[in-house]
Amino acid sequence: MVLKIHGHPISTCTARVAVVCHEKQIPYEFVLVDFGKGDHKAPAFTEHQPFGQVPYIDDDGFILYESRAIARYLAAKYPQKGLKLIPDPNDVKAVGLYDQAVSVETANFSTIAGRAVFENMFKQMVTGQQPDPVVFNGLIKQLEEKLKVYEVILGKQKYLAGDELTLADLFHLPYGHRLAAFGSDVMSRQGPNVTRWWNDLSSRESWKFAEKGVPSGLA
């Protein structure tokens, strides 16, 4: 049975899973969750995703939600497909550095970038309120300070967890791309190291595959 991704084409978290599927060359079927019809709050959906959020996957009856958890599951299940994206579990130092990088993305990037994307993209849809440019610009300033630290880290190594690409790097793509779409060049003006890293990530075929909206399946 082919993997099923239940999500929405404009969802940043759904795109995060699609990127990993492309990097790992995992075929999938995309199942549209129609926000306009309230599909994400229907009992048939919340039975599998109790928070009423997208995406979740159905892997031959195994249900899993939260995009980062899904990504780690897929990378662990298919270690021989595509790039590894996660370290060997027996290499405790590599695992430690990888977990550190994932924590950096969650605590120092997505918590800020996600709020900025919500302000300009989803706020009106969810609350009916207009985006506030003062709030958005304030969040971008906070992100600038975090990316100054990224500049130092990436001056010592190619990627966040070392010299190999991991999920920790790919997790930045959906929010980073949305910020650029709103006219913020915060991801490419921090210095040569962040610029090199971001250009590397955003030019990957997996991101070109997902950036305009999650496709119906793996090409």
Automatic annotation (TrEMBL):
InterPro entries: Glutathione-S-Trfase_C-like, Glutathione-S-Trfase_C_sf, Glutathione_S-Trfase, Glutathione_S-Trfase_N, GST_C, Thioredoxin-like_sf. Residues 1-82 form the GST N-terminal domain. The keyword Transferase applies. Gene3D superfamilies: 1.20.1050.10, Glutaredoxin. GO terms for cellular component: cytoplasm. CDD domains: GST_N_Phi. Signal peptide: none annotated. Residues 91-219 form the GST C-terminal domain. Its EC number is 2.5.1.18. The keyword Transferase applies. SUPFAM superfamilies: GST C-terminal domain-like (SSF47616), Thioredoxin-like (SSF52833). Keywords: Transferase. This is glutathione transferase.
